[in-house]
Each structure stands twice: as structure tokens, then as C-alpha cells.
Amino acid sequence: MKSIQVMTKDGAYDVNVDSELRFRLHELLPKSYRKVFVITDSTVGPLYLDDVLTELRKVSEVDYSIVPAGEGSKSSRFYFNLMTEIINAGLDRDSLIVALGGGMIGDLAGFVASTYMRGIDFIQMPTTILAHDSSVGGKVAINHPEGKNLIGSFYQPKAVLYDVDTLHTLPLREIRSGYAEIVKHSLIHPTPFWDQLKSLNLNQPLDNERLVSDLINGIHVKREIVQQDEFEQNVRQYLNFGHTLGHAIEAERGYGHITHGEAVAIGMLFALRVSEQHFNIQLPFDELYRWFKQNNYPFDVSDLSVTRLITRMKKDKKAKNSAIQMVLLKQLGECTSVRLEDNDVTLWLETFMRELVNN
Amino acid sequence: MKSIQVMTKDGAYDVNVDSELRFRLHELLPKSYRKVFVITDSTVGPLYLDDVLTELRKVSEVDYSIVPAGEGSKSSRFYFNLMTEIINAGLDRDSLIVALGGGMIGDLAGFVASTYMRGIDFIQMPTTILAHDSSVGGKVAINHPEGKNLIGSFYQPKAVLYDVDTLHTLPLREIRSGYAEIVKHSLIHPTPFWDQLKSLNLNQPLDNERLVSDLINGIHVKREIVQQDEFEQNVRQYLNFGHTLGHAIEAERGYGHITHGEAVAIGMLFALRVSEQHFNIQLPFDELYRWFKQNNYPFDVSDLSVTRLITRMKKDKKAKNSAIQMVLLKQLGECTSVRLEDNDVTLWLETFMRELVNN
């Protein structure tokens, strides 16, 4: 079992990554709990909930709730329904909530845990590669109709238990989406591990050893950054590398029509291109482009409007000539946050999108 | 201006108590804010909102919302409505929320602030005596139909600005309610100040000097306890002195039919009586009883059922013979938490209620 410890203001927690963790759950709980409540979704529930319940019932009274899969469950409605369910299940301040699922479940269950009786313990059991990112760092939230993650807290889990077996049931698109964030982590930190990813072929089945190693590398970078900046005052913004354009593409396409990681992949290529031009340097744009292509990341952006993307990328969407804030690389592994004129970004984006379509 | 500094895990904040503070607001803000949003209720709004808005508009863009007075506004519905309003008002992570009102407003606005964009700054401007208690210590929450304050956080204000002028418009019942918590603070801490309260007559108009002094004394005790135990792991429970029976009476009478402090007054007398019997000591029960009587605290408990009160006082309401946890005094100023058999408490409560009615 590979393990990484994350230090926070409220104490430390371990991120454990291994196969068959779900069958060793009760040894891995940070303490004993009289009551445990598992929150999962309609995709993950049928696959892994029984294993988790069986294991937890050896040591605790256990209840659970299954919410519909998809971002729609990260809503005020499901949040309050879950509150009612855990009250009825008799959870008190000494109880535990387990988030069994991807980022949506981690965010939702974590926000429930952070605000039930002013905060009770919770554990993340991520079941996607993408969640290696969201399960570490203590960001929990639900969405508001006006925007994603507008309602939430900083609230740390008591442990992250990552059973890599659960990743083999992921559809290929979700594997691609998760690996895009691993690629991001491989590029932005002073110990870049991009070289170790280059040869990976996502179209072939991934073995557990490989998964454990790549996840640990990604989590290591995430940990280094969130430990420096738990509350997103400074360097934590570097985690947004590739996300300025990525988020804009996601929103323009409509959530669900492109995965988060697929959008971020395009966003990272653009951020590399802008970095090269802004700092007049050479970065591994071509290498990264080829890797994404070989692994079938979708690059069909021809239908997207540059003007609309630029509007979404602006910090203040109502201001006509406001700046765009982007995380760029001064060299591989060294981030910086730069304010750019939207006219410059518009020109670069037009060229970049032509290039992407014509290649 | 009297000032007390409260140390918390997330930094320190000042509690300032004085008259006319609302006209010096902009000097007292901890930093400058581009946007400020004031949350108040339909009782306080007509009286003091204009003063506050006028003052804040000297330095910021200001919006506000007025919710109906009363505990009903501490609900998920008003919570989400406020979220929508502050999103539409364009509040970002560098904005400020001001809670102008009593404990209900402080709890509601504080919970909004603690969960909007994972937490933005907020300031408490208490307008009741009771709120000297709730505005210090960082407990914020809304109610769930199944119970009070079940959804909330620990989240510290950036400042508490207490304008004692606003207390002169309080109805007498609210003055009594607030002073009951000051009396509580006067009894439970190693520097008891009960002697200074004895001569006070609440039926006469209170002068500002007296109010400032009593509030500062109460807040001092609250601060000492919450600094020792920010997250309610141990000594913070001493603040529940008088609340075991107090909460039970409030719930039995129905919220709104007896004020919080009036119920706690009866609860404190009972806790003194139990302390005397449990530890075989003498405490100033008679003195306190006389003071409450002189100040017209209502003691008509003859219609309440001892059995029903006992059920409500039990930690586990479903268990038949479970223990009751009460905070008792070993001597004036020294608290301890004791588990008592419900049979013992029943006998004491029957005697106590007869005594209260017959006197």
C-alpha cells in the first residue's frame, strides 16, 4: 500500500492508494465509529456499495444513501435531503460519513459532513482517476443555478482510501478525463514527471501498479501545493493551469458533452502555446499534442466561437475590456499567474484553434 | 469604547462595545471592501438599517436584504434565497457580509458567509443583549425541521461591533432574556461578577455605561471559555449551565411563547438546586430567585409535565433509562459536567417545580 500524508491546519490525514482497499476498510478507519453513513451514486452503488457496507458492518452501525449519478445531484435539493436522511439515521457528532464515488460524491458528501452539526468526520473513497485531484485538498461544495461550487467550505477528510480496483470499471472517456489532471500535475511542479507518462497508452487496459504510481505522483504534487496554500490565497491558483480555457469550453459545450479532463487537455495545450509566446520559450507542446491525439482526446473545437470563449474567460464577465488571468509556465515545472489583454488572448486563441482543427 | 480581543485558530478579532458605533462603522472595518452586503430583519431594519447603509456607502458599494423577524427565517429557504441575492449583487471572495440584528440574524448571515465561495468575511453587529452570547464564539447555523442549529459551521467573524444604543428599543422581555445569559456568565467563571448584578433593576431604563460594563463582563467570560475550547470538545459545554432544563421548557412551551433567557433563568435555578443537593453545598439560590422575581421573570411552570421535560432532557430520547447530562456548580464560579440518573432528576424536578409555583 502506498501512502501520502497531507498536513493541514486541522491536523494530518493519510491518502492510501492500493488494490482491494475496500476489503480492508475497517482496519483503515482513523478511529472507531458507532454510526457510519455511506453516500454514493447510482453508477458506483451497484458496483461497490455492498463490499463497503459488508466491511463497515463488522465494526459499526451502517446506513447509506444513493443519489443519481451526475452533476445534477450536487444541488441544494439533494444536500437537504441528505441532511434529513442522516438526522433520521441518528448520526451525531461522533459519527462518520463515507463518500464513495467520484468528485461529485466527494464534494456533496463532504459539504454535508462539513455542515452537519457544525462538522463531523468524513472519509473519501474515490472511484475515479479524476478524483485523485478533488479528494485531496479539502474543497467541498454544491452548485447554485448561477454557478458551480458557489456554496461550499474548506473541510478536510480524515482519510482518503483509494481502491484502484474500482478504476477498472471506468469508461474510457473517464480514464482520459482523469489522466488529463495527472498530466497537469506532471507539468506544473518543480519535480515534473511528464517523462514517465509519455509512453502510456490509455487505449490498453491499465495495470494496478501503473495506476498506483501515476496517482501517487499526481497526489504528491497536489499535496505540495495545497499544503503551501490551504485556503487558495496564492500558489493554489497554479492548479488552474489549463482551466481558464478548459472551463470556458466545458461551459460552452454544456456540461456532460465534454468531460472535464478533455476540456482541460485543450486548455493545457493553449496555456503551453501562450506560455511559449509570452515568454518566448520552447515547451513540449508537440509532445503533449501527440500524446493527447494518440489517446483519442477529442479536439473538435471548430464549432466553438472565440468571442464567446473569451467572454467566459474574463474575470469580470460584464466588463468590456477586462483582463484575463491565466496560469502560464515559465519553464516546465514553474508556474506563474499572468494578466493578459483580451485582445492578445483573442488573437492567440484564433490561431490555436485553427491549428488544432487543421492538424 | 470598550474592546475585547478574541483569539481563534484563524486569527484574532475585536469585540467593540460602545454607543453610536453605527456612526463610526467605516473606521472600524478591519479592512476596506469593494462590496458589502448587510443582512437584517424586519424588526431591526426599519430602526437602524439606514444609519448603517449611509455609513458603509462612504467607503463601499452596498446592498442589503431584510428577512422576516423570528426564528422561521433561520431556514434552508431563506439561506438559499440569500445566496441567490448575494450572487446577483456580485459579491466575491473579497466582499463583506454584515449581520445587523439579534442571534437569529447572526446565525443565518454567518452561515451564509461561511459557505459562500467557501467562506467570505463577515461582521456581527448585535442589536440584542442576548446576542452578546451568540455573536462571540463562531457558532453559525440554520435550523432543520428536525431540530435547531443542525446545519451550521464554526466560523469566526472579522469583528463584532456592538452599538448599545440599539438596545434601548428592545422590549422588556428581550432585556430579561438577554440578562439571563449575562447572569449565567456571572456565575460560571472563576471571576464571578454576580455581586455586581444583584442590585440591577431591569424595570427601569438602563444607562449605556451600565450596559457596556455588563456586556463586557459577559463577553469576557464567554471569550475565556471559547478560547480554551473553540470546537466544543470540553469546557465549552459549561456554557450550557441552566440550558438542560431551559431547552426542555422552551421546546415544551413552544418557541416564541417563552423567551430563551426566561427559560434558562428557570433552568439555572434548577441547576443551582441540583448542585446544592448533589454536592451538599450552599449556593446563592435564594438571592438569584429573588432577583429573577423582582425583575418579573415568569415562573408559571405548573402546566408543564415533569415526565415530558425529563424525556426532553435525556441525551438519547429513545432510551428508557438513559442518563441526563447537566452542568453543575461545585462552588460559585466552578463548573463541572455530571451524569445523573433520570430517576434522581425526576424527584428533584418535582420538588423544584412545586417550590417555584408555591413561592
From TrEMBL, chains A, B:
<keyword id="KW-0456">Lyase</keyword>
<feature type="domain" description="3-dehydroquinate synthase N-terminal">
    <location>
        <begin position="66"/>
        <end position="176"/>
    </location>
</feature>
<dbReference type="GO" id="GO:0000166">
    <property type="term" value="F:nucleotide binding"/>
</dbReference>
<dbReference type="InterPro" id="IPR056179">
    <property type="entry name" value="DHQS_C"/>
</dbReference>
<dbReference type="InterPro" id="IPR030960">
    <property type="entry name" value="DHQS/DOIS_N"/>
</dbReference>
<dbReference type="GO" id="GO:0009073">
    <property type="term" value="P:aromatic amino acid family biosynthetic process"/>
</dbReference>
<feature type="binding site">
    <location>
        <position position="243"/>
    </location>
    <ligand>
        <name>Zn(2+)</name>
    </ligand>
</feature>
<keyword id="KW-0862">Zinc</keyword>
<feature type="binding site">
    <location>
        <position position="148"/>
    </location>
    <ligand>
        <name>NAD(+)</name>
    </ligand>
</feature>
<comment type="pathway">
    <text>Metabolic intermediate biosynthesis; chorismate biosynthesis; chorismate from D-erythrose 4-phosphate and phosphoenolpyruvate: step 2/7.</text>
</comment>
<feature type="binding site">
    <location>
        <position position="260"/>
    </location>
    <ligand>
        <name>Zn(2+)</name>
    </ligand>
</feature>
<comment type="similarity">
    <text>Belongs to the sugar phosphate cyclases superfamily. Dehydroquinate synthase family.</text>
</comment>
<keyword id="KW-0547">Nucleotide-binding</keyword>
<dbReference type="Pfam" id="PF24621">
    <property type="entry name" value="DHQS_C"/>
</dbReference>
<dbReference type="InterPro" id="IPR030963">
    <property type="entry name" value="DHQ_synth_fam"/>
</dbReference>
<feature type="binding site">
    <location>
        <position position="139"/>
    </location>
    <ligand>
        <name>NAD(+)</name>
    </ligand>
</feature>
<feature type="binding site">
    <location>
        <position position="181"/>
    </location>
    <ligand>
        <name>Zn(2+)</name>
    </ligand>
</feature>
<dbReference type="GO" id="GO:0005737">
    <property type="term" value="C:cytoplasm"/>
</dbReference>
<feature type="binding site">
    <location>
        <begin position="127"/>
        <end position="128"/>
    </location>
    <ligand>
        <name>NAD(+)</name>
    </ligand>
</feature>
<dbReference type="InterPro" id="IPR016037">
    <property type="entry name" value="DHQ_synth_AroB"/>
</dbReference>
<dbReference type="GO" id="GO:0003856">
    <property type="term" value="F:3-dehydroquinate synthase activity"/>
</dbReference>
<feature type="domain" description="3-dehydroquinate synthase C-terminal">
    <location>
        <begin position="178"/>
        <end position="319"/>
    </location>
</feature>
<dbReference type="GO" id="GO:0009423">
    <property type="term" value="P:chorismate biosynthetic process"/>
</dbReference>
<dbReference type="Pfam" id="PF01761">
    <property type="entry name" value="DHQ_synthase"/>
</dbReference>
<protein>
    <recommendedName>
        <fullName>3-dehydroquinate synthase</fullName>
        <ecNumber>4.2.3.4</ecNumber>
    </recommendedName>
</protein>
<keyword id="KW-0963">Cytoplasm</keyword>
<comment type="function">
    <text>Catalyzes the conversion of 3-deoxy-D-arabino-heptulosonate 7-phosphate (DAHP) to dehydroquinate (DHQ).</text>
</comment>
<dbReference type="InterPro" id="IPR050071">
    <property type="entry name" value="Dehydroquinate_synthase"/>
</dbReference>
<keyword id="KW-0028">Amino-acid biosynthesis</keyword>
<keyword id="KW-0520">NAD</keyword>
<keyword id="KW-0170">Cobalt</keyword>
<feature type="binding site">
    <location>
        <begin position="166"/>
        <end position="169"/>
    </location>
    <ligand>
        <name>NAD(+)</name>
    </ligand>
</feature>
<keyword id="KW-0057">Aromatic amino acid biosynthesis</keyword>
<dbReference type="GO" id="GO:0008652">
    <property type="term" value="P:amino acid biosynthetic process"/>
</dbReference>
<keyword id="KW-0479">Metal-binding</keyword>
<dbReference type="GO" id="GO:0046872">
    <property type="term" value="F:metal ion binding"/>
</dbReference>
